[in-house]
Write a structure and sequence with these properties.
The chain is an alpha/beta fold. It is built from five helices and five strands, in the order E-H-E-H-E-H-E-H-E-H. It has a five-stranded parallel sheet, with helices on both faces. The longest helix is centred in the first third of the chain and has 13 residues.
Length: 128
Amino acid sequence: MRPSRPVGKTILVVEDESQVRTLLAKLLEKNDYSVATANDGLEAMKHLEEHRPDLMLVDVMMPRLDGFSLVKAVRYSPENRAIPIIFVTAKTDARSMIEGINVGAKFFLTKPFQIGDVLAKIKKALET
């Protein structure tokens, strides 16, 4: 886990692919967000024990604890259930998207993603 400088709203990026995690972190920091990262769902759960981000970007397919299971756990927690969550995933089938929305995600971003789309969905999720 890597917290960065406290700038604006804090976003927890949960992604097992280091290149994608780094890309998202740099993009968000460049746009005045404070960023923390986690390699998988279990690391994210540990982070949530001490820190409450304003939003989470969560990959669906991860080792140890996948994105769907992580979001279910977050939604079960009274302290964290209101955190907006956006899935970032290579899974584009309708069934996965429906499951993601059903477990509590605000939006789905499909890989490869457009930078403008990422920023627009984050802004919209933080406004609601």
